[in-house]
Amino acid sequence: MFRRIARRFLGTVTRVNTTASVAALTFDDGPHPEYTPRLLEILERHGARATFFMVGKRAEKYPEVVAEVARRGHTIGNHSWNHPSFPRLTGSQRRQQLRHCASVLADTGARLFRPPFGHQDTASRLDAWILGYDVIAWSILADDWLDHSPDQVFDTLSERVRPGSIILLHDALFCAENQKHLDRAATLEAVDRLLTAYPSYEFVTVPELMQRGRPVRQWWQRQGEAEWLDRQKSWEGGGEY
Questions:
Q1: Where are the domains of the chain?
Q2: Does the pTM exceed 0.85?
Q3: What CATH homologous superfamily does 2-236 map to?
Q4: Alpha-carbon separation of residue 106 from 23, 64, 67, 100 (angstroms)
Q5: What mean pLDDT comes out for the span 145-160?
Q6: Which residues contact 182 (CB under 8 A, 6 or more apart)?
Q7: Which of 228, 206, 10 is nearest to 116 (CA)?
Q8: 137 neighbors 112 (Cβ within 8 angstroms)
Q9: What is the residue-wise DSSP string for 97-109?
Q10: 111-123 pLDDT tens trace
Q11: Best exposed site among 9, 141, 195, 221 by fewest CB in 10 Å?
């Protein structure tokens, strides 16, 4: 009983249980002055809406891109101020990350949070709950932060998309700003191809998707200390993110 109650209030949304042909595209780490506007054109051409989980430090730098995302009817969520691993921070540091990002997003931001790298423990989830955030993870991951071709990204998406899917992609890469994998052209092409290949699907924002069925909430705990250090080493060597 306790676990069911805890999952209901503190569970992380990973997908929505629905029979309708509807799914949510989400994009992390932006905004980007080149790739985000190009992505907006693709989405508009297909009549699709998406959710952008923005890093506050980048949103502060490109307020005109933030405003344009909101103007076109997409949802903007909180992705922290500067993309740290939340389990490695103190509670006050985590809350400051959320507040600082929210202050930049202001009226354009929804009370949705995606933890950087998907890293979360019980304490960090409680901090998000205290500040009134619903935590959104994903059900489809295309590893588009690596140097995959458009074919690879598209094949992964097309094989896995299901009614109620939440798809994680990137319109920028915050932690790779001085490394490789920055080119988002493959992701943009794959999104264009996905929307073309699935005309019967409606691609909507996360809040809209959650109204179309029952949100599936999981007890989301990811990345222990050793795993985080391994991933940090890969970033420094030009690997993931």
A1: 2-236
A2: yes
A3: Glycoside hydrolase/deacetylase (3.20.20.370)
A4: 26, 13, 11, 10
A5: 94
A6: 173, 176
A7: 228
A8: no
A9: HHHHHHHHHGGGE
A10: 999 999 999 999 9
A11: 9
